[in-house]
Amino acid sequence: MCGISGFLDTSRRRGADELRDIVLGMANRLRHRGPDDFGAWVDAATGVALGHRRLSILDLSPLGHQPMHSASGRYALSFNGEIYNVRALRGKLEDLGHTFRGHSDTEVMLACFSRWGVHQAVKHFIGMFAFALWDREERVLHLARDRFGEKPLYYGWMGKTFLFASELKAVRAHPDFKADIDRDVLALYFRYGYIPGPYSIYHGISKILPGTVLTVDLGTGSSPKITPYWSMQAVAEQGSANPFTGTEAEAIARLDQLLREAVKLQMEADVPLGAFLSGGVDSSTIVALMQAQSAEPVRTFSIGFHEKAYNEAPYAKSVAKHLGTAHTELYVTPEEAMAVIPRIPMLYDEPFADPSQIPTFLVSQLARRDVTVSLSGDAGDELFAGYSAYLGGLRIWQQLGWIPRPLRALGAGGLTMLSPASWDSLFRMIGPILPQHLLQQNLGSKFRAIASLLPADSAGNLYQRMLTHWEAPGSLVIGARELPTPLTNRTRCGNPSDMLRLMMYSDALMYLPDDILVKVDRAAMGVSLETRVPLLDPRIVEFAWRLPDSMKVRDGRGKWILRQVLSRYLSPKLIDRPKMGFGMPIGAWLRDPLKEWAEALLDKKRLKDRGILNPDPIREKWEEHLSGTLNWDTPMWDVLMFQAWLDHERQDM
């Protein structure tokens, strides 16, 4: 795991020494991603500069130093990530006559490029990666990213300079960079709580989309050409067209085999290795398969909280004891958790508002004390229908989707005629005559949530509404218009008649790469910890999309087939419990220990003077949240994370 950076200065106005100084300055902003080594390679004649920071995982010797050149000298490579099938690729290349000096995956990648060319070589890689490859013969720069976006890579033109880097902080370090916030993108952030690709918070800077190669041809001077080498849409369509036809027992056995193979590949490392363990289905499955293939106790790590509603540590401890892992847990106080908050803008580089970023950083920090690599159970929900929102979305669409939209819109208007507080007051008044099952807390808030979903004109639109944090982000951000995403692009949203697959597919395109994987990558790399996600082995993903819905959702619960695999290694009683999110009591904290910090960031004059956000809806929600009338923790956290990021961004420039 490493950090890469570089640029292509088409003006060629800088000499070799200046190019080297600039690219090393960019690379050094990524020291946390690679504290073990650094390097730079420049070619003043073409204006090319590649920078690298290394976290040594495979081949700890100087033979793994980057940027690295191919044996012929044609290619120069700066690479971030791991290629898990490197041994198989190396063996195939040796059979074809290639020889190697060391045993790094970087050297094998260069041989693959030399043998098959860039666009064919990436199809051979099973792993997580982002790389910059300069072809000295063709005078072409290639940037590429892995199939699912585990590793980040930003790029863009600033004048006559083409910039790229693993993180925006390195891009900002280039003297040609101009920090111009894209308000249209900011509106997307306030809808989802993260920034979906290919957008970034800055005008002129984009994210390389997962599964693509971007090419800049110095000879033609044309716009970058983006070529997909793998498509989530194709996987989803092929899975529907070619469904698994075996028995349930055969499906369970096949998934077990694929998982074991993926876990075994990802346990390869020349440094200490462990795993995150929450005690849920996904992480428990990964750890069980690790321990089944390890002669020594696997090192596992979990974070505990004294607030019972957020504490999964006892479940993780029970799983670890049953499997015989070397388990480490740390109970964190609210003060320790809140101390992470000032670091968030520096870690994430652009606004990012998933509150589980806090415990993710804490468990990464805990693991880094003992290991350099940690496996995680991420992606199980997206592949095997684990999110409660999936089941809720299915129920809502089945119950309401058949009603003509005008009637549903009329019903939404009726539900919003009264405020949530008024609905709650009404129900308290008539409570004595109501059936017991209607006596629920916060019914007013629930009516409001239902009202926001009723006008949906399609399954895709319903799911977008379910995911929405701010209902009208275009009016919240002054002068913004909301940009299209896969959720609003009907040609990319799959088959709308299959609501479950639509939701999983949408999350695979947006939520997984731009929230979940961003959260884990930045939190872990912030403490120089490499994380690996076995469930994102492409063979597992492709198999999962061939499975019928009935092997994912059964008896009102998701991840049925994953539970069956886990039951081969672990008693179901140890994980048979309601799903818990990896969250924090943000709502309560904002009313008490974080109130002063939040109030300063949400000050009406401060908001107005910056001229970016409309203060009125923010202040209205903030006051309702403080009073306890409504719980607005999610939209408030969005605003707070943006305000905190903006403070940091202005100090950093």
For the biggest sheet, the summary is: 6 strands, antiparallel
Separate helix tally: 29
Question: What is the general shape?
Answer: globular
In percent, how much strand structure appears in the residues?
Answer: 5-15%
Ranges where pLDDT stays below 50 over 5 or more residues in a row are: 433-439
- Share of residues in helices: 40-55%
* Structural classification: alpha+beta
Radius of gyration: 25 Å
Which strand order spans the largest sheet, edge to edge or round the barrel? 2-3-1-9-8-10
Query: What distance separates the N and C termini?
Result: 27 Å
Question: How confident overall, as mean pLDDT?
Answer: 90
Q: How many β-strands, per DSSP?
A: 17
Description of the structure:
The protein has 653 residues and is α+β, with helices and mostly antiparallel strands. The protein has 29 helices and 17 strands. The strands form 3 sheets. It has a 6-stranded antiparallel beta sheet. It has a 6-stranded antiparallel beta sheet with strand order 4-5-6-7-11-12, covered by helices on one side. Strands 15-14-13-16-17 form a 5-stranded parallel beta sheet, sandwiched between helices. It is globular, with a radius of gyration of 25 Å. The two termini are 27 Å apart. Mean pLDDT is 90; it is low at 433-439.
